[in-house]
């Protein structure tokens, strides 16, 4: 505040001088230009107008040659662009809804898990987010895992622990292909990150199966028609139908409800750190905004004296050198 | 203003040990206050969505099962 008032008080002196100077300058310029205006003709403007036209023409030509979209695929091969849905959990200030995650995990377990693995999710990550410790332990114990080799080098089976990862439905990719007519059901751990459109794409895909393919669509043998899938022919048939699962919290299990829940769950599986990341982001913004304000204030404080100072130059008084010589006396 | 400035100088800045102690103690306190406050705001924005809001139903249910 002190710096600001100092700046203000210093201004009028300089401003008056500057105004006076600029006024005379502008007058002289205007007088000279008015004389030139009378003599101007189309010849004066030909060069700038021509140069401008050439520049615009060059840019337009370049944009025509190199700026257009080049599509390697037809729209059918690209797949229909998914609709934007207002995902609540995708907002910058919202966490995942644990209740929805729980429902989504139920849908995954009862529907998706028969073909798709979720190999990057350990049981421990479900604890404190989707289910209690006891529930997760009970779930882990339903499956068997290999032990470390014992004294004879034999590998035995043991019930699962919290540190184990969710087991896949198939032993390996080849078994998966053999069971699914040659098509490999992809792992869903990172599917929301891995597909263009993310949540919107997965929701649209799950709910986008028409009752029958539109007229003229070519659906190869063994594939199903889905406009959102690139190429429109997808090996996965429609799986979600109303009341396919029975939610424990008695939410009506419509197709879109299940698709929404499982999409949110897959988003959590792909980005389990999202909640903490968002909260930390807000904290960082809060701290850095204070620091920014502080640094701006310090800069103004330090520069106040520099900005408000006035440099005065007093030229030395020049006197003719002859005046310093002793004057001749005219006394002769 | 002058009285406050001299008071602050005499109590905090005069001795280096006092000043350092004040700096570390206030850093600790402000960190604690900032974290607690931001957590509270975050939880109020996301009320009913996080596991700590939801888990009551399932923990309760497990205990009921044990009783039966």
UniProtKB/TrEMBL annotation, chain A:
<keyword id="KW-0472">Membrane</keyword>
<keyword id="KW-0812">Transmembrane</keyword>
<dbReference type="GO" id="GO:0005743">
    <property type="term" value="C:mitochondrial inner membrane"/>
</dbReference>
<feature type="domain" description="Cytochrome c">
    <location>
        <begin position="99"/>
        <end position="252"/>
    </location>
</feature>
<feature type="compositionally biased region" description="Acidic residues">
    <location>
        <begin position="141"/>
        <end position="154"/>
    </location>
</feature>
<keyword id="KW-1133">Transmembrane helix</keyword>
<keyword id="KW-0349">Heme</keyword>
<protein>
    <recommendedName>
        <fullName>quinol--cytochrome-c reductase</fullName>
        <ecNumber>7.1.1.8</ecNumber>
    </recommendedName>
</protein>
<keyword id="KW-0249">Electron transport</keyword>
<feature type="binding site" description="covalent">
    <location>
        <position position="116"/>
    </location>
    <ligand>
        <name>heme c</name>
    </ligand>
</feature>
<dbReference type="InterPro" id="IPR009056">
    <property type="entry name" value="Cyt_c-like_dom"/>
</dbReference>
<keyword id="KW-0999">Mitochondrion inner membrane</keyword>
<keyword id="KW-0813">Transport</keyword>
<feature type="region of interest" description="Disordered">
    <location>
        <begin position="141"/>
        <end position="165"/>
    </location>
</feature>
<keyword id="KW-0408">Iron</keyword>
<dbReference type="InterPro" id="IPR021157">
    <property type="entry name" value="Cyt_c1_TM_anchor_C"/>
</dbReference>
<dbReference type="GO" id="GO:0020037">
    <property type="term" value="F:heme binding"/>
</dbReference>
<dbReference type="InterPro" id="IPR002326">
    <property type="entry name" value="Cyt_c1"/>
</dbReference>
<feature type="region of interest" description="Disordered">
    <location>
        <begin position="17"/>
        <end position="38"/>
    </location>
</feature>
<keyword id="KW-0679">Respiratory chain</keyword>
<dbReference type="GO" id="GO:0008121">
    <property type="term" value="F:quinol-cytochrome-c reductase activity"/>
</dbReference>
<feature type="binding site" description="covalent">
    <location>
        <position position="236"/>
    </location>
    <ligand>
        <name>heme c</name>
    </ligand>
</feature>
Automatic annotation (TrEMBL), chain B:
<dbReference type="GO" id="GO:0006122">
    <property type="term" value="P:mitochondrial electron transport, ubiquinol to cytochrome c"/>
</dbReference>
<dbReference type="GO" id="GO:0005743">
    <property type="term" value="C:mitochondrial inner membrane"/>
</dbReference>
<keyword id="KW-0472">Membrane</keyword>
<comment type="function">
    <text>Component of the ubiquinol-cytochrome c oxidoreductase, a multisubunit transmembrane complex that is part of the mitochondrial electron transport chain which drives oxidative phosphorylation. The complex plays an important role in the uptake of multiple carbon sources present in different host niches.</text>
</comment>
<keyword id="KW-0679">Respiratory chain</keyword>
<keyword id="KW-0812">Transmembrane</keyword>
<comment type="similarity">
    <text>Belongs to the UQCR10/QCR9 family.</text>
</comment>
<keyword id="KW-0496">Mitochondrion</keyword>
<comment type="subunit">
    <text>Component of the ubiquinol-cytochrome c oxidoreductase (cytochrome b-c1 complex, complex III, CIII), a multisubunit enzyme composed of 3 respiratory subunits cytochrome b, cytochrome c1 and Rieske protein, 2 core protein subunits, and additional low-molecular weight protein subunits.</text>
</comment>
<feature type="transmembrane region" description="Helical">
    <location>
        <begin position="12"/>
        <end position="34"/>
    </location>
</feature>
<keyword id="KW-1133">Transmembrane helix</keyword>
<keyword id="KW-0249">Electron transport</keyword>
<dbReference type="InterPro" id="IPR036656">
    <property type="entry name" value="QCR9_sf"/>
</dbReference>
<dbReference type="InterPro" id="IPR008027">
    <property type="entry name" value="QCR9"/>
</dbReference>
<protein>
    <recommendedName>
        <fullName>Complex III subunit 9</fullName>
    </recommendedName>
</protein>
<dbReference type="Pfam" id="PF05365">
    <property type="entry name" value="UCR_UQCRX_QCR9"/>
</dbReference>
<dbReference type="GO" id="GO:0045275">
    <property type="term" value="C:respiratory chain complex III"/>
</dbReference>
<keyword id="KW-0999">Mitochondrion inner membrane</keyword>
<keyword id="KW-0813">Transport</keyword>
